[in-house]
Structures are given as structure tokens and as C-alpha cells.
Design brief:
- There is one protein chain.
- The protein is of the alpha+beta class and 181 residues long.
- It has one domain: Mog1/PsbP, alpha/beta/alpha sandwich (Protein Transport Mog1p, Chain A), CATH 3.40.1000.10.
- The chain has a 7-stranded antiparallel β-sheet, sandwiched between helices.
- The longest helix has 25 residues.
- It starts with a helix and ends with a strand.
- 21% of the residues are buried.
Length: 181
């Protein structure tokens, strides 16, 4: 093989490798533990978070909560956490399993796809549900929701179906912690 040709190939490979290597480190998404003082929770999430206050109207008034969302652009995964404090009069008569099943059913209906899973779970002995839906666009949406006394916490991940087992998704769900109860 011609020595000049081999040198050119090696230079091109080095340039491509250097470009890929530098792009990974220049654009790598950083994660941090985000703590919500209002929600009393912490979670590992990409550093560039968007916060918003959400209000939901119910028969007896409104419920206000907060939401955090962030996208890992390299992986194409969106993470979000929603927190709502429910009025005491609603929680005193609420059946946690029915409330959580209704939330799961509503989520599945909203996702409008094929149900991959829908089951009961718990977080520190607090009741919860988790479900996963494969959408027709090739994306998967996963949700975990917990009821902790008068608060509801909902975690959602939106990703390509092929990435639904990505370790970052597991780290996100596993990192959820209550900072005050």
C-alpha cells in the first residue's frame, strides 16, 4: 500500500476521532441533584432545568404545584417531575389506590399508544404506580407516581423506544428522594 495514502487515511481517521471525542466532551450533558424546596424532593436531572408553576382547576377550587423538566439533548431524553399538594378534605376521603389508578389510566390515555406495563409500586411504603407506553411515533413514555400523605409526585421520561433501558433513566427514577415529609 502506498505510504502517502496510508498517512492520509490515518490523518482523516484521527480528525474524525478527534471531532467525535471533542464533541462528546464539549456537548456532554451534565447532571446534578435538583432540590425543590416547595415540593420537598430531590432528583438527579440534567443541569439545564425549566421550572414552572402549574395550577389545576378542580370542582372545589384549584391545586397549585411545581414542575421541573430538562432534556439530555445528546441522548434525546426528556425528564420531568411534577408535584402537587392536595387539599386536606380531598385526601381524607381519597382511596390512594383508586387515585393512583385513575392517574395511571389518564396518563396511558394521554400517551395514546401500546401499554408496555402498568402496575402498583411503592416508595418508602407510600403507594404508587408505574407505567410505560410505546407510542406510534417510536417513542416510549414512562411514568412513576407516588402519593405521600397530602402530596402527589409524578416523574415522567420521554425517549426513543430503543433507549428506554438507558441507565440515565434508571438513575433518574432511583434518585428521587424526599427532603421533607
Amino acid at each position: 500500500m502506498n505510504k502517502t495514502f496510508l498517512n492520509v487515511v490515518l490523518i482523516i481517521l484521527a480528525m474524525i476521532g478527534g471531532k467525535l471525542f471533542s464533541q462528546h466532551f464539549i456537548t456532554a450533558t451534565q447532571y446534578k441533584t435538583f432540590t425543590s424546596d416547595l415540593g420537598g424532593y430531590s432528583v438527579l436531572i440534567p443541569t439545564d432545568t425549566e421550572s414552572k408553576v402549574e395550577t389545576i382547576n378542580i370542582l372545589s377550587g384549584s391545586i397549585t404545584g411545581d414542575a421541573q423538566s430538562a432534556i439530555d439533548y445528546n441522548l434525546g431524553i426528556k425528564f420531568s417531575v411534577h408535584h402537587f399538594k392536595m387539599p386536606a378534605f380531598l385526601m381524607s376521603s381519597a382511596n390512594p389506590d383508586k387515585v393512583l389508578k385513575t392517574m395511571s389510566d389518564d396518563f396511558i390515555s394521554w400517551a395514546n399508544g401500546t401499554i408496555l406495563s402498568d402496575q402498583k409500586t411503592e416508595f418508602r411504603s407510600f403507594p404508587g404506580r408505574e407505567c410505560s407506553v410505546k407510542k406510534s411515533d417510536g417513542k416510549t413514555v414512562k411514568m412513576k407516581v407516588f402519593m405521600v400523605r397530602d402530596k402527589i409526585y409524578q416523574m415522567i421520561v420521554y425517549c426513543k423506544s430503543a433507549d428506554s433501558g438507558n441507565k440515565r433513566i434508571g438513575q433518574f427514577f432511583d434518585s428521587f428522594n424526599l427532603t421533607k415529609i
